[in-house]
């Protein structure tokens, strides 16, 4: 199962971030890492559940977690 990085909206409260995480786990996801610099977390789940997470009102973006390289 792929891992996704979920970024919540900048004005999301801690309760709203928790609600987004609950939404992800309710869809069968497993929370991996919680980020401190951004309001977000990583979640692992089937790709067909991503669309429901993207529609959450507190979520700004959902991106596939992948390796980033610099030149």
From TrEMBL:
Report which superkingdom the organism of origin falls in.
Eukaryota
**Name this polypeptide is given:** Peptidase inhibitor I9
Q: State the organism named in the record.
A: Hypoxylon rubiginosum
Upper taxonomic classification of the species?
Answer: Eukaryota, Fungi, Dikarya, Ascomycota, Pezizomycotina
